[in-house]
Write a structure and sequence with these properties.
Number of domains of chain B: 3
Oligomer: heterodimer
Number of helices of chain B: 17
Number of strands of chain A: 0
Number of strands of chain B: 16
Radius of gyration of chain B: 22 Å
Largest sheet of chain A: none
CATH superfamily of the largest domain in chain B: Cytochrome-c3 Hydrogenase, chain B
Number of helices of chain A: 12
Order of helices and strands of chain A: HHHHHHHHHHHH
Helix content of chain B: 40-55%
Distance between the termini of chain A: 48 Å
Shape of chain A: globular
Distance between the termini of chain B: 33 Å
Strand content of chain B: 15-25%
CATH architecture of the largest domain in chain B: Orthogonal Bundle
Structural class of chain B: alpha+beta
CATH class of the largest domain in chain B: Mainly Alpha
Number of domains of chain A: 1
Structural class of chain A: mainly alpha
Radius of gyration of chain A: 19 Å
Largest interface: A-B, 30 and 32 residues
Helix content of chain A: 55-70%
CATH topology of the largest domain in chain B: Cytochrome-c3 Hydrogenase, chain B
C-alpha cells in the first residue's frame, strides 16, 4: 500500500518541480515568472488540443511519444522514493531501468527521423551521440555502487539495510558521484549547459528539435515523459544526499521532496549563472562526469 | 582620377555636372578605385529619356560620383572589381533588366519583375512564388547534408531563407535568399506627394526609422534649400544616438539569451525599453517616428524634456555598466563569443562591410567621423579596441558604442539652448535636374539615400541603401567552417535588416 501511494505521489508531483526551475530562473532575471503550477496548466492545455500529423510520417511517429512516456513511468516503478519499497524490484533491475530509459529515447529518435526533417535528424544525431557518452558514465556509477554495496537493484541501493548515502562510511566517494550524476542529469534532461529548453532557435536545439512536429496530446505525453525522467534522475541524487530516514513516513516523504525541491532549485541556479557550452565541447563535458566517477571507482580499489 | 567629381555629403549637384564617361573608362576607373582602398556607396541605374545610365557614388576618405550610359548588357564590374559590386550589379540586373556579362554569380536579389519592361535576366516567371527559377549552390558528397531554414522561422523574426551545406555539424557553405518582404519602396517613393516621403522612409526598416528618415529629410532639405536650426540639429543627433543605444542594448541582451545566459537578457530587455521611452519623451513615438521632418524637427525639445533625458541617462548609465560587466565577465559567455563567426579584415574589406560589423573586423569607417552631418563634426569620434571580427568583437564594439553614444548625448544636452521653431509644414519646390546623396551612420552602419530630380523638380529616381545590403554576404562568410549550432549566435551578432534589404 505504502509503495502504491509513494509511486502515485511521484507521478502526481513530478510536473510541479520544473515550475520551480522556472521560478528560480525568473528570480535571477528579476522577473515574477510563471505560476508554480504552470506545467500542469500546459499539460491540460495540450491534452485538450488535437494532434496534427504530417502526411509523410508513419505509425512510428505516433509511437514515439507513447513509448517514451511509458518507459519513463516504468522506470519510476522501480524507484524507492523516500526509502519506501518500490513496486517492482529484482536483482539487476538498475540495468533494466536505464535501458528502459534508453528504449524511450530510441523511440523518440526514431520518431524524429520518421519526419525526414533535416532539423530533427540533426537533433537526433546529437541526442544519440551525447546519450551514448552519458550511458558510459552511468554504468561506471553502477560499477561503483556494486563495489560499495554488492547489489544491482535500486531498492537495495536506497532502501535496504545498508543504503548508499553520503553519511555512510564511503560518503566521501559519493561527493564525486553526486557531482557527476548532476552533470548527467543536466545532459540527459536537456538542460543548460548542454541544451537550452527555453530557446526557439531550431539549429541549436538537441531535445526540443526532435519533438518539433509533435502536437497536442502527443506533445503532452512527451512533456510528461520528460518530467518523469528528470524526476527519476533528481530522485537518484536526492537519495544519495538525503539525511538518514526518519521514523515517521510522512516526515520522511516531506524531507525527500524537500531535497528534490532543492535540487531543482540548483538546476535553476546553474541555468542562471552560466551560458550554454559550444556544441563541440559537450562531449568533453560528459566525459568529465565519466572521469569523476571513474576516479571514484579507482579509489575503491584496494592497494595490494 | 581626374575625371571624378568630389562631392559632399548632402550637397546638391546639377545633374549636368556629374562627369559622364564611356563604359570602358567607367569600368576602369571604378575597378582601380575599389582596388585602391575604395568602397561603393551607391551604384544603380536610372532612366534618362531613351537611355539608361549607371550612376556610382563611391568613397575613400572623400566622396565621389561618376556616371555612364549602358546598353542592355554590359561587362560585369564584379568580374573586374570584385565582390563590392556583386549585389549592386545583381540589383541593377533585377530592377532594369540589364545583364552584367560575366558576372560570376548572377542571381536575383529580391525576386520581382523589372520596371523597364525588358525580358527578365534570370528567366523567372514572377507569377510563381519565390524562389522561382533558381538553383541553390550545392556541395556534393556522401557525407554532405543540406539544411534549409526559413523563410518562416520560430519566434518573431523576419522572413529569410538560409540554406546550409554541412558536413556533420560543420557548415561548409551558407546561402542566404531574401526578398520575401519586397514592397517596392523605391518606386513608391517616386510616386507619392513630397510630404509622405519621410513617413515612408521611416517604414523602410522599423528599427532604423530615424536613420532612414534623417537621410530622406537631409536630401529634401538639400534639394529645397532648407536650413536646419542648430537646436533642431541637436535633437536629430540625440534621436539618432538614442536609436543606436536602444538597438545595441537590445542586441546585447539577445546575444546573451542566445547562449542561454538569462539574467543580462532580461535586464537589457528592460533597459532597451527605457531608451525607447526616452524617444517617446522626445517625440511621442517609441521608435522616433514623426520626429524628423524636412527643415528640422516636428517637435521641439524643451527644458523639461532635457531634464528627463539627463536624469534618466545618469540612472541608466550605471545599470548598463553593471549588466555589461555581468555579461562580459562570465567565462562561459566569453567561451561562446570568442573566435565564433570570425570575419577577417581581408574578407570584410573585399566585401566592403560597414557599421559595427566592419569596425569589429578592423575597418575604421564611421560616417559620423568621415562625412559628418548634423552636430557630428563637433563631437568626438569613437575608437574600437577589439577588432578580431568574431562575435566577441561585434559585441564589444556595441558595448563601446553604447558608452560613446551616452557621452555624446550628455554633451549635446549640455549645449546652450538657442530658440528654434518646429519644421515648416507644406511642400517645398525641389531643385530641377539635380542630384544629391546623403549618408548617415545609422545604428547598423552607413545608411544612404540618393535622389535625382527631373527637369520639373519631380523625383526621377529615389535610391535607398540600407547598411545590411553590404553586410549580408559577411554573415555568409562568417559561417564558413563554423558549427551550424552557432548560426543563431552569429546571425544575432550581425543582426542585419531583412526589410531594409528587401525594400
Amino acid at each position: 500500500m505504502e509503495s502504491v501511494v509513494s509511486f502515485g505521489l511521484a507521478l502526481l508531483l513530478a510536473p510541479l518541480f520544473p515550475g520551480v526551475i522556472l521560478k528560480t530562473k525568473a528570480l535571477f532575471a528579476g522577473k515574477q515568472g510563471p505560476p508554480l503550477l504552470i506545467k500542469y496548466f500546459t499539460l491540460i492545455k495540450l491534452l485538450r488540443k488535437g494532434s496534427v500529423y504530417s502526411a509523410s510520417t508513419t505509425f512510428v511517429f505516433r509511437l514515439g511519444p507513447l513509448i517514451s512516456c511509458a518507459a519513463a513511468i516504468m522506470a519510476l516503478l522501480f524507484f524507492p522514493f523516500a526509502g519506501t519499497a518500490p513496486l517492482i524490484a529484482f536483482h539487476g533491475d538498475v540495468i533494466m531501468v536505464f535501458y528502459l530509459l534508453g528504449l524511450g529515447r530510441f523511440f523518440t529518435i526514431v520518431a524524429a527521423l520518421d519526419t525526414a526533417s533535416p532539423f530533427e535528424g540533426m537533433g537526433a544525431a546529437r541526442e544519440a551521440f551525447f546519450s551514448t557518452l552519458a550511458e558510459a558514465a552511468i554504468f561506471v556509477v553502477l560499477i561503483l555502487f556494486f563495489r560499495m554495496n554488492g547489489a544491482l537493484s535500486l531498492a537495495a541501493y536506497f532502501s535496504g539495510s545498508q543504503p548508499i548515502s553520503i553519511i555512510g562510511s564511503q560518503g566521501a566517494l559519493l561527493l564525486l558521484v553526486i557531482v557527476a550524476l548532476f552533470m548527467i542529469l543536466l545532459t540527459e534532461n536537456s538542460r543548460v549547459p548542454v541544451d537550452d529548453p527555453a530557446t526557439h532557435l531550431e539549429l541549436t536545439m538537441i531535445h526540443e528539435v526532435m519533438i518539433l512536429d509533435h502536437s497536442g496530446p502527443d506533445l503532452a505525453l512527451i512533456e510528461l515523459g520528460a518530467f518523469y525522467k528528470l524526476f527519476f534522475y533528481a530522485s537518484f541524487i536526492a537519495c544519495l544526499i538525503k539525511p538518514p530516514p526518519l521514523a515517521d513516513p510522512v516526515a520522511n516523504t516531506l524531507l525527500f521532496y524537500g531535497v528534490i525541491m532543492l535540487l531543482y532549485m540548483v538546476v535553476g541556479v546553474v541555468e542562471s549563472i552560466m551560458a550554454r557550452l559550444k556544441m563541440d565541447l559537450v562531449p568533453k563535458y560528459i566525459l568529465t562526469a565519466f572521469a569523476l566517477v571513474f576516479f571514484a571507482v579507482i579509489l575503491t580499489l584496494e592497494i595490494v | 582620377m581626374d575625371n571624378l567629381l568630389q562631392i559632399g555629403n548632402g550637397q546638391v549637384i546639377e545633374r549636368s555636372r556629374i562627369p559622364r564617361v564611356d563604359f570602358p573608362s567607367f569600368l576602369g576607373l571604378l575597378t582601380d578605385f575599389v582596388h585602391a582602398n575604395g568602397y561603393i556607396v551607391q551604384f544603380f541605374a536610372y532612366p534618362a529619356g531613351e537611355q539608361t545610365r549607371l550612376l556610382a557614388v563611391f568613397r575613400n576618405s572623400n566622396l565621389f560620383v561618376l556616371e555612364t550610359e549602358v546598353d542592355e548588357a554590359f561587362p560585369s564590374l564584379t568580374l573586374s572589381g570584385g565582390a563590392k559590386f556583386n549585389l549592386f550589379e545583381r540589383e541593377i540586373a533585377e530592377q532594369h533588366g540589364l545583364r552584367p556579362l560575366g558576372h560570376p554569380w548572377l542571381k536575383m536579389v529580391r525576386y520581382h519583375a523589372n520596371a523597364a519592361g525588358r525580358p527578365d535576366v534570370f528567366g523567372n516567371d514572377y507569377r510563381i512564388d519565390i524562389p522561382g527559377n533558381y538553383d541553390y549552390f550545392r556541395v556534393e558528397g556522401e557525407a554532405i547534408h543540406e539544411v534549409g531554414v526559413g523563410p518562416v522561422h520560430a519566434g518573431i523574426i523576419e522572413p529569410g531563407h538560409f540554406r546550409f551545406q554541412c558536413a556533420g555539424e560543420e557548415v561548409l557553405h551558407l546561402e542566404i535568399q531574401l526578398g520575401y518582404q519586397h514592397r517596392g519602396v523605391e518606386r513608391l517613393l517616386t510616386s507619392v506627394p513630397q510630404h509622405r516621403l519621410p513617413i515612408i522612409a521611416e517604414a523602410i526598416a522599423g528599427d532604423t526609422a530615424i536613420g532612414h528618415n534623417l537621410c530622406c529629410c537631409q536630401a529634401i532639405e538639400a534639394l529645397a534649400g532648407l536650413a536646419v536650426a542648430p537646436g533642431a540639429s541637436t535633437v536629430r543627433t540625440i534621436a539618432l544616438e538614442l536609436e543606436r543605444i536602444a538597438n545595441h542594448i537590445g542586441d546585447l541582451g539577445a546575444l546573451s539569451g542566445d547562449v542561454a545566459f538569462n539574467p543580462p537578457a532580461a535586464y537589457f530587455g528592460r533597459i532597451r525599453g527605457e531608451f525607447l521611452n526616452l524617444l517617446l519623451t522626445l517625440c511621442g513615438n517609441r521608435f522616433g517616428k514623426s520626429l524628423i521632418r524636412p527643415g528640422g524637427v516636428a517637435q521641439t525639445m524643451d527644458g523639461e524634456q532635457r531634464q528627463i533625458i539627463c536624469a534618466k541617462l545618469k540612472e541608466l548609465r550605471k545599470e548598463i555598466v553593471q549588466v555589461c560587466d555581468l555579461l562580459f565577465s562570465a567565462h562561459t559567455v566569453l567561451a561562446r563569443f570568442e573566435s565564433t563567426g570570425a570575419v577577417s579584415r581581408k574578407i570584410a574589406d573585399q566585401l566592403g562591410m560597414v557599421g559595427y560589423c566592419g569596425r569589429a573586423s578592423g575597418l575604421e569607417y564611421d560616417v559620423r567621423e568621415f562625412f559628418p552631418t548634423e552636430r557630428y563634426a563637433e563631437l568626438p569620434a569613437n575608437t574600437n579596441r577589439v577588432t578580431n571580427g568574431d562575435v566577441y568583437s561585434r559585441a564589444m564594439v556595441r558595448r563601446e558604442e553604447i558608452m560613446h553614444s551616452l557621452g555624446l548625448i550628455d554633451r549635446l544636452l549640455a549645449l546652450p539652448e538657442a530658440p528654434y521653431s518646429r519644421a515648416p509644414m507644406g511642400e517645398q519646390p525641389l531643385a530641377p535636374a539635380s542630384f544629391v546623396v546623403t549618408l548617415n551612420e545609422g545604428w547598423r552602419g552607413e545608411v544612404s539615400h540618393c535622389l535625382l530630380t527631373d527637369d520639373n523638380g519631380g523625383i526621377l529616381r529615389y535610391k535607398v541603401k540600407d547598411p545590411s545590403f553590404h553586410n549580408w554576404t559577411g554573415l555568409a562568410m562568417a559561417l564558413r567552417n563554423q558549427e551550424i549550432s552557432d548560426f543563431p549566435l552569429c546571425n544575432k551578432s550581425f543582426n542585419l535588416s531583412y526589410c531594409g534589404f528587401d525594400l
